[in-house]
Amino acid sequence: EFMQASWDIEEVQAKGIQHLGSFVKDKSAFPYLLTCTEVTTLAMKTHTDSPDLQVEGCTLLLEILSQALEQGVMMALDERVASCLLHTVGTKIPDSVEFLWFSEVAAENLRRVGLIPDLLSILGRFLHNDKICSSCCAVLWSLAVSEKNADQAVLESALPVTSAVLQTHLQDGDVAESACSALWALALQGCFTDSDYEPTAALLLDALRMNPERAVLVRNGCLALASLVRLSEIAALAVLLDPKGSGMELIKDEYHLHSDEPGVAEALCLLMHEMVQYDEVMLDMRSQKMEKLLSQIKLQFPFS
After folding, report:
1. Hey, where are the domains in the chain?
2. What are the backbone angles phi and psi of residue 288, rounded to the nearest 5°?
3. What does the angle CA 225 – CA 180 – CA 278 come to, to the nearest 5 degrees?
4. Alpha-carbon span 55 to 41, nearest angstrom
5. How far is CA 22 from CA 3, 72, 74, 96, 199, in A?
6. What are phi and psi of 148, to 5 degrees?
7. ∠ CA(215), CA(198), CA(158), 5° rounding?
8. What pTM was estimated for this model as a whole?
9. pLDDT tens-digit profile of 23-68?
10. CA-atom Rg of the chain in angstroms
11. Residues 164-217: tens digit of each pLDDT
């Protein structure tokens, strides 16, 4: 009631949100969670120029959703709450999109109210903002990889935007890592047409070349390439015949750089496994003595 009576006073709203957050985990507070949600979203919309209040509000909203889940209740996240979170994500607090990443229940609810188109809109508007791009691509990966009844048209529309993010931030390891993960998820969902395989494979190879020391990026980039190769021989040939250098030589280099990383070795093996399903590609791999590399990997990880 005190918050409702003092909407225009930022300090009252910020302190009120903090105080609500201090007891929202108590089971006796459960009947009041909906009211807490209403006053919090209104405070966030009223004071959009306060970063601290926006962060506190996001944290409280996601804690409320988590408490609802623990109580066995799927609290509906209506458009008002979703738009409040997304407005915060897209305009005022770039890092706050990470709160969405941390909360499975938030992701589920936001998916229901159509988060992916909003994420794509945010990415399009903030293509040169590294923090927004990194966080949005991470959330896109989470949503796309777990989407059971995916709207294929929506996911396909994510491909050009995600590719543009990777192209723009190839030399930024954090963003490139998130974008590679998102492309991997889109490949798993089959969001590519024949005209997409070659340029996407080339883009992923560029990301590997420019960030060779980042094990997670190398792993996810190779997994994305493996998914593309599984779908089309065009992608396999693009890996072999990339004008910037042989993909097979790149695989060798990456393995030797990360020979103590089982995740990287596993991703490289999966990529080679997908490559050899095509006769022409397999012959080329033999000529480049890939069997030697496979023997080294087998010796390095005999129990994997």
Report:
1. 1-76, 79-173, 192-303
2. -95, 10
3. 5
4. 12
5. 16, 21, 22, 20, 51
6. -85, -45
7. 75
8. 0.70
9. 887 878 878 888 888 898 889 888 878 877 877 887 787 777 667 6
10. 23
11. 999 999 999 999 999 999 999 999 988 999 999 999 999 999 999 999 999 999
CA distance 138 to 73: 27
Return the structure tokens found at 87. 């407005």
Tell me the CA distances in angstroms from 19 to 15, 29, 43, 101, one per residue in order. Answer: 6, 12, 14, 24
Extract long-range pairs of 91-94: CB within 8 Å, 24+ residues apart: 91/48, 92/48, 92/49, 92/51, 92/54, 93/51, 93/54, 93/55, 93/58, 94/126, 94/129, 94/131, 94/132, 94/135
pLDDT digits 0-9 by tens, 220-279:
999 999 999 999 999 999 999 988 988 999 999 999 999 999 999 999 999 999 999 999
Question: Hey, is 48 helix, strand or coil?
Answer: coil
Q: Is 89 a residue whose pLDDT tops 80? A: no
Q: How far apart are CA 163 and CA 182, in angstroms?
A: 9
First-to-final CA distance of the chain: 60
